[in-house]
Structure formats: C-alpha cells, structure tokens
Amino acid sequence: MTAPLTIIGSGMAGLGLVRQLRALKDDRPITVITADSGDDYSKPLLSTGFAKRLPPERLASQSALAAAERLGVVMRTHTRVDAIDVPARTLQIGAERLPWDELVLATGASPARPFAVPPELDERIFSINDLDDYRAFHAALEALGRPARVAIVGFGLVGCEFANDLTAGGHRVALVAPEVAPLPRLLPAPLGRALGEAFREAGMTLHAGRTLASLAAEGAAVAVHLDDGSRLDADLVLVATGLRPRTALAEAAGLAVGAAGIRVDRTLATSAPGIHALGDVACVDGVNAMFVQPLQASAKALARTLAGTPTAVAYGAWPVLVKTPLLPVVALPPAEPPARWRIEGEGRDLVALAEDAAERLIGFALTGRCVRRKVELARAAPPLLG
C-alpha cells in the first residue's frame, strides 16, 4: 500500500491545503495529524466571538469527523508526533512508526509567555490561539456568571482585537504593555494613540509603558502587580505577547530553521527532500507573514506543486485589517524601518505613509474613515513577496 501524503496540523493551513488538493481532483490518500480536536473553524472568528456571545460550537463549521468524511482524509485528533525520521520517511508517534510519502508541516505558532505563572493560577491565565483555547476561556467566563474583569497583557494585534471583542461583550478590560501605544508593529505612535483613546472612551483602562512584575492569587481574584508598584485586580488574565513558530519537531529532525520559522523556498520546500511547510510555521524566502491571505496563497501554490506543477508562491501588497470596530484600522507594515512616516488627517481619521529615503511608498497605516483608502494605497505599495 502506498504511504499517504501526511499533514501535521489541522488549522487553516493544513485543511486549506487539503481543500486545494481536492479542488485539483487530486484523490491521493491523505492523513491529517493534529494535537487538538481537529474541528474545522475560521480562526479569525476567535477574536469576534465574545462580542457576539457565540459559544464554541457556533464557531466550528463542522466536526473533525465531518471534515474528514467530506474531504476524504484520515484525521487523527489529539495526537502528537514525537519525531520525524527523514531517511526512513516515518513519523514516531509513541511506539508507532507511521510511514509517509510526502510530509507537510503545518504546525502553526504557539503563544509566547514571557513570565512564570504560579501553579495555583493555571486555571485563570489564558492564551487564545485555537478553538480549544476559546473553549477553555469561554468556560471560565461562563463559570463566573457575571461580566468579568479581564487583564490583557500585550498591545499587539491579538491583544487589541480581544480587548475590543471582550469590551463589546460587556466585560471590563485592562490592557498592560511596555509600549507607549497600541499596535506598535503596525502603527506609528500617533495612530496607536488614537486607537488607545477610542479604547479608553469605551471604558478600558490602559497601562502603557508598564510591564508585568508578578501575578498572585488573592482569593477569587488575580492580583496583577506592575513594575511601577501599582496593582490591578482581575478575574482572568489573557496573555497576548506574540506567537512563536512551532519549529521544535523540524529542528530535531535536522531541517533548517530560524527564529522566524522553518526555512522554505518559494515552492514551500524545506531543506529535507519530500518535506514542505506552510502557514505560521513557515519562513518563505525570509518572510513569515502570519496573516490569512499569505496562508491561503501558500496553500494554493503548494497544492499545485504537490499535484505535479511546481509553483512558486508570491504575496501581494496585502494590508492587515484589524478587527477593532471601536476604531477601524488597516495597516501594511513596511518590510524595513522607513526613513520617515508622513502623517495626514484630523482627529482619529488618519493616514500614515511609510517612505524610504527616496520618498517611495513602502507601507502605510490608516485609521477611522481613512481606511477607505486601503485599495488605492495597496496598489501603489510594493508586494510583500513579489
């Protein structure tokens, strides 16, 4: 019997690749191995579900079993791969040795947690990166039986989207971060401050320029101690301090990896024959873009490559649409630090143009009503990966 194409990971990258292969009428046997429940869901819904008061089952479009039947794959859920044997083309899963014909690593990224959590607080400190995480946090909110006090650590995309979402869902949110304003990797400070003002008007408290000193259990609350000696009390803490590509399995197998992920070429091929990588874990020709459009483009290109037509992936000038309805934000962060930001507009309706030394547009950021310029500016900006 021919060994299957094996995909490690059942998120948007892994299942997206399967859909693209089936759309190309590729009917090869496929095995999908996932450490979580394997349910098919749209990851962007994770940061909008609390405002809509959606239970976890409403986020999943179909169960793992239904997805497996529909796509014609073998789905192994709650299964962890211990090692990859590249020469033997097998995976080690406990005592089992599972052969593969071609292997795709779609293991995603895991939330970074740059501080220790006391064991007694394990059930009150959360990160949300998949549907199982959403289930756990949703259950904790429901157990309170009232609006929660939620401390969010991090000013990045995930922290800001959940802050907006939880506030819209009726919860009290406090944001803690060392930066001077929200979204420091996407927005220059004046636009970040505009978003911060919108957050404050909605009832959030922002502790900008502050770092977490320690966490402690104080009865039913979590005491969040900051580096300036101040303290805030929370029912739950949501850690949103960035994502790190899950490269340990690939690195242990001898594949080329770096801080930005598993190194792959434009055809998503790794340094080992027969192994590809895509999604949040893959660094494509030096670029790791953890957003939906690059992921979808990668899945489409890799499907064509695996189906017999080698295809190099390309990323356009695709701006990031941040899900913060309190103040709409769109950004195309420049690939390198700009020589200058040219900022225009009034109030919270702002345009920031990132320019290089020759005054060429290399990125932009938009807030408020100015987000309508995203298509115009994206056409003038360089592609992320041309």
Overall average residue pLDDT: 95
Helix proportion of residues, in percent? 10-25%
Q: Number of helical segments?
A: 9
Work out the radius of gyration: 22 Å
**What coarse outline follows from CA principal-axis ratios?**
globular
Q: Segments where pLDDT lies below 50 for 5+ residues? A: none
The fraction of residues assigned to DSSP E strands is 25-35%
Q: SS-based structural class? A: alpha/beta
Distance between the termini: 40 Å
Strand count: 28
Largest sheet: number of strands, sense, barrel closure:
5 strands, parallel
Order of adjacent strands in the largest pleated sheet? 5-2-1-9-22
Key descriptive features of the protein:
386 residues; alpha/beta; 5-stranded parallel sheet; 9 helices
Explain how this protein is built.
By secondary structure, this protein is an alpha/beta fold. Helices cover 23% and strands 30% of the residues. It is built from nine helices and 28 strands. Helix 1 packs across helix 8. The longest helix is centred in the C-terminal third of the chain and has 15 residues, at 292-306. The chain is globular and about 60 Å long.
